[in-house]
């Protein structure tokens, strides 16, 4: 019997040598009782987790991408367009990284570089890296589990300048992306099998996935598409009422602002009502604000943080605010950087969180440094400022113009309606699907919107995520596409041609 690759790796013998040795009987009996790994012997919550952003469509897109490498691939397109994921620097989307961020990162990785390449790095970059190095030392060492204290102080200053209210660095946790913080907080709030968290529908599937993993109950409340995907207090009250009837104890309210997948932005008066609702129902407010810097029409649709609202109202509502380097104009998804700030949290709860993050030792240093560059960009008058301004303005302008032109063209298609998102990186159009299309989907064993999205991928190479991955009202169909793809004319042109052929084939609803 084969002792298994782990045993071969564990020994200092070559596999060939091992084969010629008669194995001791103890080893033989261990190996004959080696447990088989099988799905029914694993944590059942793993199977319940769903994450559509990297689901069936994304997997098929990868297969097609590989096929395109074959000389006679026979596909009706020459490239796969990844419109499924908000990963700005992904190959094909190619949002350039901010030079300042990368220069600081380069000098942090290899401080010698500043001396080896004199004059290459702007003065403010060299000074910034020196300052960070003095605080951090080597990026190869574990940091404080909550994140480098100096960087947390800088985050607190950023929050104070943004909101005009104090922020405590000891209540800030640097994280490996916002996801790590969201999962931790959801885990913490699920105190019994009856605990539930209010989540918007449509939602970013991190929330349902984390709830499934930590055995919490999702309490869905619906966003109002007819009113630009606004958040209605009544719909949350209704959801709470229904939860109570089901014996679910609501522990928290998730708000994604600006929204994913909707791109909607909350106005301050709604935010105030939401804080009051949390007070009334004793809820922890989980404010996912990772898109706070993705504003396409900031004059008419500005961003206000929940920290500012809670502080202004002097509300006792416990609030956790999440931010990330993955979005905005930084787009540094792969560095895994973010933070959360706890407001109105008692010290013993903060200490408990600290204990829990200590188990994973520390967030990645590359991500922590990325956070520092995001919240401390160059200032006017510094050598890096002009380039930083040009790069960030270009990204903002491209996102705003793509979003506007895509929503306009989608709205002109028969059976399609699309809210012109004022923020984030996505559009979430609704598509009417005829009975004939729904029947064809049923015959193929697919949800109607997944059937539509699969056909779109097969015929054009455009990969989107069906609405069923984010949630939608019964009998409605959507898909999410990102506004990150360059070459909008060619891309939307393909989408339009596909949709018109679809309508010709299946008819309108
Ligand atoms: C609303 C929302 N929250 C959190 C995240 C997670 O981001 P991060 O890369 O910081 O983990 C995303 C990623 O797309 C998101 O859309």
UniProtKB/TrEMBL annotation:
Its cofactor is pyridoxal 5'-phosphate. SUPFAM superfamilies: PLP-dependent transferases. Keywords: Aminotransferase, Pyridoxal phosphate, Transferase. InterPro entries: ALAT1/2-like, Aminotransferase_I/II_large, PyrdxlP-dep_Trfase, PyrdxlP-dep_Trfase_major, PyrdxlP-dep_Trfase_small. GO terms for molecular function: pyridoxal phosphate binding; transaminase activity. PANTHER family: ALANINE AMINOTRANSFERASE, ALANINE TRANSAMINASE. Belongs to the class-I pyridoxal-phosphate-dependent aminotransferase family. Alanine aminotransferase subfamily. This is Aminotransferase class I/classII large domain-containing protein. It comes from Agrocybe pediades.
């Amino acid at each position: 019997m084969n002792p298994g690759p782990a045993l071969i790796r564990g020994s200092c013998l070559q596999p060939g040598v091992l084969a010629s040795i008669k194995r001791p009987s103890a080893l033989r009996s261990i190996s004959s009782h080696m447990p088989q790994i099988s799905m029914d012997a694993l944590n059942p919550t793993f199977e319940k987790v769903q994450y559509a952003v990297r689901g069936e469509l994304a997997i098929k897109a990868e297969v097609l991408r590989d096929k395109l490498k074959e000389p006679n691939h026979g596909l009706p397109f020459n490239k796969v367009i990844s419109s499924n994921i908000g990963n700005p620097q992904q190959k094909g989307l190619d949002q350039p990284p901010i030079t300042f961020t990368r220069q600081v990162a380069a000098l942090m990785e290899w401080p010698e570089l500043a001396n080896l390449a004199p004059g290459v790095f702007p003065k403010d970059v060299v000074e910034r890296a020196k300052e960070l190095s003095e605080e951090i030392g080597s990026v190869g060492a574990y940091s404080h589990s909550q994140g480098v204290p100096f960087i947390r102080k800088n985050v607190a200053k950023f929050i104070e300048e943004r909101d005009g209210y104090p922020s405590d660095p000891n209540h800030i946790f640097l994280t490996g992306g916002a996801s790590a913080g969201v999962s931790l907080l959801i885990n913490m709030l699920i105190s019994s099998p009856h605990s539930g968290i209010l989540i918007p529908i449509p939602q970013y599937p991190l929330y349902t996935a984390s709830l499934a993993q930590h055995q919490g109950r999702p309490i869905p409340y619906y966003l109002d598409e007819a009113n630009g995907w606004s958040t209605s207090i009544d719909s949350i009250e209704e959801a709470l009422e229904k939860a109570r009837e089901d014996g679910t104890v609501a522990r928290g309210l998730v708000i994604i602002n600006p929204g994913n997948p909707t791109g909607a932005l909350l106005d301050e008066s709604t935010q105030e009502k939401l804080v009051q609702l949390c007070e009334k129902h004793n809820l922890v407010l989980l404010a996912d604000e990772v898109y706070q810097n993705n504003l396409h029409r900031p004059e008419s649709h500005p961003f206000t943080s929940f920290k500012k609202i809670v502080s202004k109202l002097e509300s006792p509502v416990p609030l956790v605010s999440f931010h990330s380097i993955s979005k905005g104009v930084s787009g540094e998804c792969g560095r895994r950087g973010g933070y959360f700030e706890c407001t109105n949290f008692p010290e013993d709860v903060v200490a408990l969180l600290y204990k829990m993050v200590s188990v994973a030792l520390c967030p990645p240093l590359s991500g922590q440094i990325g956070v520092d560059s995001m919240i401390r960009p160059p200032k006017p008058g510094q050598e890096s400022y002009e380039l930083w301004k040009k790069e960030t303005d270009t990204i903002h302008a491209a996102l705003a113009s793509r979003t506007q032109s895509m929503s306009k063209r989608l709205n002109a298609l028969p059976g399609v309606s699309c809210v012109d998102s004022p923020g984030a990186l996505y559009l979430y159009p609704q598509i009417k699907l005829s009975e004939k299309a729904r029947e064809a989907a049923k015959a193929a064993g697919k949800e109607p919107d997944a059937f539509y999205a699969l056909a779109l991928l097969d015929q054009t190479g455009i990969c989107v995520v069906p609405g069923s991955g984010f949630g939608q009202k019964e009998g409605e169909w959507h898909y999410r596409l990102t506004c990150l793809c360059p070459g909008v004319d060619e891309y939307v042109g393909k989408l339009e041609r596909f949709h018109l052929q679809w309508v010709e084939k299946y008819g309108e609803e």
